[in-house]
What does this fold into?
Amino acid sequence: MSSYTSNLLHFLDKDGNIPQDIHPEGKKMASFLTSVVDKVSASFPFIKTSIETGLKCGKKNCQEDIIGALDNINQPIHWYCMKCGDNGTISDWKGSQWDHSKKIAEDNPSKKQAG
Ligand SMILES: [Zn+2]
It folds into this structure.
């Protein structure tokens, strides 16, 4: 079982994109992390502890579903594999292009009064 502590910003360039010239392993991790952020933040404001990300564990001979969790919108996103126990946290995901929480908050009809 492995634990990963990831800062999303470390995988992005200054414009907030995944760099084209990133190392293949880094790119794999970056696309995994951004997918987790994408799925988990889309569940906002329904903070849940078991969000299906649709991703599969990257570990050899595992391929189990990856579950995401978000206890608090201001905290790192957690993810874990139900089978092998690999897990990690993703910090600095807020404000990235994969962060849906802001978008969803803006779509809230009660906040559209000012128009
Ligand atoms: Zn696994």
